[in-house]
Write a structure and sequence with these properties.
This protein is mainly beta and about 325 residues long. The protein is about 15% helix and about 35% strand. The chain has two domains: about 5-155, Immunoglobulin-like, CATH 2.60.40; about 185-310, Glutaredoxin. The chain has five helices and 18 strands. The longest helix has 14 residues, at about 230-245.
């Protein structure tokens, strides 16, 4: 299995911004910044409440910056599916979620440099009533920039492509510290070049073993060294920190994406969960219950406080 395409949040590619609404224009002729929206959610599907993630950038004479902190208002509209007429959709308030290890800032959306903050706006429990092409409109007052209104188009499928809440988790034999015949970098890309495998408590269990032993599991699929979104390393670090606090609630597993990055070869475990239609999207985080069913999932970024609450809701060991 080879990794042919990585679809990740464009916000992570510093200095680059693109979406269906066009690139931010840093021209000084504008009276204010040009805003650009990038839908960061992967695998949106109809008929179930789910998280919606949106990244927002701004370009002006000072270059390209992020919109960070605070809340933004979201309105959704159905654009069509080739047979149905356009229509209105739900609305929501989206709250800023920063990459783990970055600042959370104040209550007001603000223009920030990547070194200050990088993240997305997350709305909870958004339900799309049908598959097709949708549009989101985000509005907010941005500090030192004034009113912002920006749109972005995205697709909603009829069914999830990646394992979703309520479904049974795949009984995957992912690589662990016991996989002594495998290169260390295939277990964790931070061990490429002969270094030790870090965060060893994340590499002791297979998903299959956790399911067989009726142990809840928090599983992250991420490649810390090579991830194009720049979020994978902080995500794995955050899971390691959670493992230190909640090891009585679940086992914690990191599944490395690459088996051989040079040859673009994907680990079979990552391919089984995430490789669909010649695309692989990362990072992902899954919470699997003691019954082997997926309780929740987070794509691209997550709020460690929210994940910690989900872990605390599990029965203690």
């Amino acid at each position: 299995m080879r990794r042919t395409v990585i679809i990740t949040l464009m916000l992570g590619l510093l200095g680059t911004a693109c979406s269906g609404s066009g690139d931010p224009d840093p021209s000084p002729a504008r009276s204010g910044p040009s805003f650009n929206a990038e839908v960061a959610s992967a695998d949106l599907y109809a008929g179930a409440p789910q998280r919606f993630l949106l990244g927002i950038l701004a370009g002006d004479a000072n270059g390209i910056r992020y919109v960070s902190y605070g809340d933004v208002d979201l309105r959704f509209a159905f654009l069509g599916d080739g047979t149905s007429s356009p229509g209105t959709g739900p609305s929501a308030v989206a709250t800023y979620v920063g990459a783990p290890g970055t600042g959370t800032g104040g209550p007001t959306p603000t223009l920030t440099q990547p070194s200050e903050a990088r993240g997305v706006y997350q709305a909870e429990d958004v339900t799309f009533d049908r598959a097709g092409t949708w549009q989101v409109t985000a509005e907010a007052q941005v500090a030192d920039a004034g009113p912002m209104q920006v749109t972005g188009a995205f697709s909603v499928a009829a069914e999830p492509a990646v394992p979703a809440p309520g479904q049974r988790a795949l009984k995957t034999e992912n690589l662990t510290l016991d996989s002594t015949d495998e290169p260390p970098g295939a277990i964790d890309s931070r061990a490429v070049g002969g270094g030790p495998i870090p965060d060893q408590n994340l590499h002791r269990w297979t998903i299959a073993d956790a399911i067989r032993q009726h142990r809840p599991a928090l599983v992250t699929f991420a490649t810390p060294v090579y991830c194009q979104s720049k979020f994978c390393g902080p995500v794995v670090d955050a899971v390691e920190q959670l493992s230190q606090r909640y090891d009585d609630r679940a086992v914690f597993i990191h599944v490395e994406i690459y088996h051989d990055q040079v040859d673009n070869e994907i680990n079979q475990a990552a391919a089984d969960w995430l490789f669909r239609d010649d695309e692989l999207r990362e990072p992902w985080l899954f919470l699997i219950g003691a019954d082997g069913r997926i309780i929740d999932r987070w794509g691209v970024l997550f709020d460690p406080v929210e994940v910690a609450a989900a872990l605390r809701a599990l029965p203690g060991a």
